[in-house]
Design a protein that fits this description.
The chain has 4 helices and 10 strands; from the N terminus they run H-E-E-H-E-H-E-E-H-E-E-E-E-E. It has about 180 residues and is α+β, with helices and mostly antiparallel strands. The longest helix is centred in the first third of the chain and has 14 residues. It is globular, with a radius of gyration of 16 Å. About 25% of the residues have low confidence.
């Protein structure tokens, strides 16, 4: 499945323009400028996960900086007959497992389903699959709605239940389930 997602994203890149332009505040911007705008928002978060009580009710607003707080362990995958790096999530990230969260990122449509997209901390031209970021900078989003209405590099917020993937090589490290656009 992971290999299928990688092939899907590579196919999208073959048919999409190299530089995607978008509108922010009425001005045309390159993906690099958009990335800088989002980075400011992500790093200006006042939320500290370790300060959040375990019994918190309602959604928690998170950013990509928190999700990238992981280390890696080389693990043999018998089903693939090879070793792969698997995530070792920090306590801050583990505290989010199963919680309802809100996260903002760049939409990367998936061909395989009508209700699944990838969400990235970076625009497609600088995403994980292009070698510009790590695997913790992208997640699968399983929507309650039709994903076809979202376009490549749309900047969107999504709300859903965050699931951590410890060792399934067919999925991203993060899954946002029962999600909807905000």
């Amino acid at each position: 499945m992971f290999a299928y997602k990688l092939v899907t994203l590579l196919l999208i890149s073959a048919i999409s323009p190299l530089f995607v332009l978008a509108q922010v505040d009425g001005a045309e911007n390159t993906p690099e400028v958009l990335s800088e705008i989002l980075l400011q928002d992500y790093t200006s978060s006042n939320l500290e996960i370790e300060d959040t009580p375990a019994s918190i009710e309602g959604p928690v607003r998170i950013d990509w900086q928190i999700l990238q707080d992981i280390k890696y362990d080389l693990k043999y995958m018998p089903e693939l007959e090879l070793s792969m790096y698997t995530p070792l999530f920090s306590d801050r990230v583990k505290a989010l497992d199963g919680k309802e969260v809100i996260i903002e990122g760049y939409v990367i449509p998936m061909i395989e389903g009508l209700n699944e997209i990838a969400l990235s901390a970076n625009p497609y031209a600088a995403c994980f699959f292009c070698g510009q970021a790590g695997p913790a900078s992208v997640m699968s989003v399983f929507l309650k709605e039709d994903a076809r209405k979202f376009k490549l590099d749309d900047i969107k917020k999504f709300r859903g239940r965050l699931k951590l993937n410890y060792d399934n090589p067919d999925e991203f490290y993060y899954l946002l389930q029962d999600a909807r656009a905000e």
